[in-house]
């Protein structure tokens, strides 16, 4: 190893820091420098792949741990007093004895920290020692190394089912299309596969990639924790720049799937990988009780200093009143000067009375919270058998906040609903198709006694792609065989690894009217485009259901050929078809396993006028692919529902690569489209698009789907403007009807681009993709540029069912005094329908609908609304009642209402509202609403959601709850508590929240009470000893009072206390608002054990004590009967006033808790009857689920313009008669 001067080392370290801080990094291959010294490596400034998450080392554990513990002011306080006790003039008792409590507390905390750090060390060792394949220039092949040996600039080979060791820029794969599939469950919890593509134009040594041939420079951005964005480009020798993004990056921790191998260039390693930057460890939040506890400790300090000042003054007056120093005091000491002596006695009193501040309180609170979390996580009522998941507690120190929630902010889709999207209705070219048969089956599934798999194994109608209207009779005759086959398929779906693949989502019954329409129509271009858009305008990946994915994180060395390779090779050989449709040709009868991939004729001129046919006869025999082997990997349930709907009509998504997508037609033919670009969905545009080149007409076609309000304003003015306007008007009415039925709606459009338009736009798009600055903004602007003058094809309506017991849960939460807000991106009509279904809105509520388009109108609306609310509250009929006011507001109005000028009025309005429904809101608006209400009203807020769009809202609330649904685990990973069903929120808050808060609050009071009683005993004794800071109790016994004698009873009180049973708390949700504790057999045993421990230790200590002043004192006292009489009378006299107060209170004006406690002692049947009478007497909300029908949706025929929300203020009082809103 060559000698390097210290100056050179300092200079190199300085240059390394500058290289790491740069916004852009230039990375080159390590292969030319293999074998050279570290100082000659070009990428040496960047960290290696070894990780270290431990906080301590063996050598520096003690000083670092003590430094960390001394950040807690209480520890500094007690250490300071212990050190002060070593000063002779202020010494209250033996210095060594004073050190025992703080030493025990610091030692216990240090042991806990050491155990946690040792577990982190073992985890780091396991990860750093995992094997991987790294290319060696010396060996001319990939050699096995450990993860810790991988460096930036290395070439790593990842094989199928292997875990990716570092962030790799994908350069080559075994797939002919240069793609690979990864599973990101370790990062975001999503089990669906994601496609990654090799950087185009970099691998020039196909079919085998030679890393030594890579001579480019990789320029990438500075490491960050954004898992969805990555800026990079590869600069070749000829200075050509090839852009790369997140679609070209393999993230550390992901798993390679369905790909034999992939080779990547390491851009980030170790602690700089995106996975490690997102590994922030457990979150720390301070609970409200903890903040209040700090205030209580401050008051205790003030009381302590007051008592010390009184003692100091008392000692001065006592000495000053004496003519000479008493004989029993030491002569020649500071006692000769009363002023100086009283000053020293202040510190002596401070040491003596220090137990007023409980030293073990914080440690006891941590122990109690750990036990509370144990009981919560092991509650079987919070376990979901379907998903095999139980509740997770990630924030260990805010359990008591669950009992103080005042506002709940909830997402709708996936949180209140199942997030199982079922295709229900559609509208094509202004004609509506209701799919009644599918609705009948769905209504049967909604019955609680029916099983989803069994129902969907009973086929009403074949939903297979090779359908034929004339073959229905034969299908009926073979119904038994079909039932058996579909029952088997339903079980396969239930066990599928893919998300959104339950029978409820995959089985779609085609509409007979739509089938007849297609049969009778000669030119069906619009219908073809509609179903093609459903099939290809998405990011759904196609895999084989037979290729099961292993779920273990270990390496699997077996190598199998990918079934997608055969399919991809067939897709590449595809041409185009050309035939004019003159009449409908019925296809031959076949089963779903007989779909044939046919070649297409590309010999004719593609520019000639053509009409696409759904039934192109096969050109020759080709291999068959069974539909049962196709498995769709979707990122959202909406996409999966639309793809399965297209499949039900014979438009089958067969394969997808970065450059092409293949769709099977009902004619057994297929179309292979060249994918030119995919404009991903974002919350600003509210839509996504796919730009393809048609294989027949060779036209550039843009298929777009998105929210109706985002699509309708982008429609163009074609030649037949009158027809297009009529179609748009009819489609809008259908959309409004769908929304009133609670369906999620999407609009489907098409746009044909000329060659010049596409070429001009492609240049702009390429510039945006290669940009390093403002890339996201430029990409969005390029998408907006092309998504104009769209041609409307139709619309879809997808249903998302409510989860079980959602209405009961919301009603219970409202009875508990919690105000519930629902924040959703759906249309107002859809949201209102769901609001009534989940009983967020009631039939007799005053429902205020707010919708406006400008600031002036919004101001007028708020003023008018506030006046109406005040008039409603002042109505004599509403005196002594809670106003049942609900607010419905859209996102645009919400933005204006939250502006600085109108914010106070909006806050004043929502304070009067029992529930609020916010529609058309963005993820950013969700978090802004939570912050506004929490900060302005100073309330405890809980946010619950299931998707990535709810993360900001969850993190903004005091408590974030994630629902482990079908859209990954982003919300769960960002939350404090994770549940699998919304109904679990009821017991989590009303039972466990009440218990945790009641137990911990009473335990803290218990601590302060016992310490105050002990200190008062010592303080009042000072009046009899001249305030000399002496004690009538032995110093060892004083120290053990807090440390041993009285430490267990409060802890057991905080863990085991149960003021009311779970059944009582669930039956009477109003009890959530307050609670007091009561004793149990466990508490009695612990208290008696504490007393016995005190007498045992004192007797033993007295027998061994060598000082005559304490020798056998307690034994002598216990021999006198008066001792027992004094103990008994003192206890009775101390507790009698409190017990007398509670007896009189519960007899004259009993509290709800007291009444409920008496009911809790009755038999269950009698108790339930009393609960019903109580709820009726106190005005509790009864279960009106069977009596309250869901507001009926207007039919398509009766829909008029008045039912569409205008830009005005609508104040609704919805009654049992379903009166129409009155416009003010």
TrEMBL record:
Gene3D superfamilies named in the record: Calcium-transporting ATPase, cytoplasmic domain N, Calcium-transporting ATPase, cytoplasmic transduction domain A, Calcium-transporting ATPase, transmembrane domain, HAD superfamily/HAD-like
One Pfam family from the record: Cation_ATPase
Keyword vocabulary terms for this entry: ATP-binding, Endoplasmic reticulum, Magnesium, Membrane, Metal-binding, Nucleotide-binding, Translocase, Transmembrane, Transmembrane helix
Residues where Mg(2+) binds: 411, 413, 946, 950
Annotated P-type ATPase C-terminal domain residues: 972-1077, 1080-1150
Disordered: annotated segments: 464-503, 1181-1200
Any one of the GO BP annotations: phospholipid translocation
SUPFAM superfamilies named among the record's database cross-references: Calcium ATPase, transduction domain A (SSF81653), Calcium ATPase, transmembrane domain M (SSF81665), HAD-like (SSF56784), Metal cation-transporting ATPase, ATP-binding domain N (SSF81660)
Cofactor(s) demanded: Mg(2+)
Record-annotated membrane-spanning stretches: 73-91, 97-115, 293-318, 343-365, 526-547, 1039-1056, 1081-1102, 1122-1141
Catalytic activity: a beta-D-glucosyl-(1<->1')-N-acylsphing-4-enine(out) + ATP + H2O = a beta-D-glucosyl-(1<->1')-N-acylsphing-4-enine(in) + ADP + phosphate + H(+); ATP + H2O + phospholipidSide 1 = ADP + phosphate + phospholipidSide 2
Gene Ontology terms: cellular component: endoplasmic reticulum membrane; plasma membrane
Compartment(s) of residence: Endomembrane system; Endoplasmic reticulum membrane; Membrane
Main location (coarse class): membrane
Molecular-function GO term, any one: ATPase-coupled intramembrane lipid transporter activity
Enzyme Commission number(s) from the entry: 7.6.2.1
Annotated positions binding ATP: 411-413, 639, 681, 705, 744, 824-826, 920, 926, 949-950
Limits of the P-type ATPase N-terminal domain: 43-97
Membrane topology (UniProt): Multi-pass membrane protein
CDD domains the record matches: P-type_ATPase_APLT_Dnf-like
Family (UniProt): Belongs to the cation transport ATPase (P-type) (TC 3.A.3) family. Type IV subfamily.
Protein name (Swiss-Prot/TrEMBL): Phospholipid-transporting ATPase
